Amino acid sequence: MAKHPAATDIEQDLTQTLGRYTRLESWQMVSGGSIHQSYHVQSSTGQHFFIKTNHCSKAHTFTAEAQGLTILRHALDKDNPLRTPQVISQNTNATHAWLILEYIPFRRGDAASQTKLGEGLALLHQHTAPQFGLDSDNVIGASPQTNAWTDDWQTFWQEQRLGTQFELAKQHGFYDSFAKEAEQLFMRLPTLFKEHQPKPSLLHGDLWGGNAAADNQGNPIIFDPAVYYGDRECDLAMTELFGGFSADFYAAYNHVYPLSDSYAQRKILYNLYHILNHANLFGGTYIIQSKSMMQQLLHHTS
Q1: CATH class for the domain made up of 111-300
Q2: Closest-CA residue to 249 (of 30, 81, 52)
Q3: Pick from 234, 224, 226, 230: which is nearest to 271 by CA?
Q4: Could you tell me which CATH number the domain at 7-104 has?
Q5: Distance of alpha carbon 38 from alpha carbon 30, whole angstroms
Q6: Looking at 77, 151, 152, 206, which residue is catalytic?
Q7: Left, alpha or beta for 256 (phi > 0: left; psi -120 to 50: alpha)?
Q8: DSSP letter assigned to residue 133
Q9: CA 112 to chain centre
Q10: Are 241 and 208 in contact (CB under 8 A)?
Q11: What is the pLDDT of residues 60-78, one digit of tens each?
Q12: Where are the domains of the chain?
């Protein structure tokens, strides 16, 4: 396909970053994302890159992604089988923003790669911080995600996860459709978190099946993160939301870092955040599903 409109500036960025002249010759669009445009790009010297682009007003999303990938990469020690793409550059011109990553060919995962993914995630979750949050805010999909450092997990989840989504729902005009359930749910949160005091674990933050894969050697790869320090159950809950993770994955995770028996109830609460986010981004049945999940939580705590 034809070169990207910002190709010349991206070439200059790569030339400066890599310290050698880089000409990009082959641009192949990659499907799978709904927010950015993604390309597999090859240079004149045969080097491959994965490049995401968008309007320059979206540069903050690439800044957040680059930061998240870098945090994850630094946390993956030699004993962790997980991989993340290396960040090469993130930049803008007058009209476009872009993120240049290491290009990693994917293959379909198998039982071995799912086992390694479970083991690797369990090891990642053992990286902890003194508080819940992150040094900066980022994004969840196309929505803002606040991460102010907080000592108490229930407060963090109420104010910076559910609370922010409820505020967006008010702005979008559909909060009243589940206002009663939302207000009652906030009153029941102490029951849902009773005797649950999680450590602030390093999370991927957006771990659905589309953000995990395997390389040609079968090593698991995670990407497109929304990183913060929180309850590790949040990552596990999201893996169950849309599928894509096998029994081998869950068995391996629990072998390394067993989950609490009470996780099954909290996972509904944690996945409510993502369904609310989908409701704010896409509307429709996600609004109905959000209300249904709140009713389910209220029934369990009545």
Answers
A1: alpha beta
A2: 81
A3: 234
A4: 3.30.200.20
A5: 5
A6: 206
A7: alpha
A8: B
A9: 23
A10: yes
A11: 999 999 999 999 999 998 8
A12: 7-104, 111-300
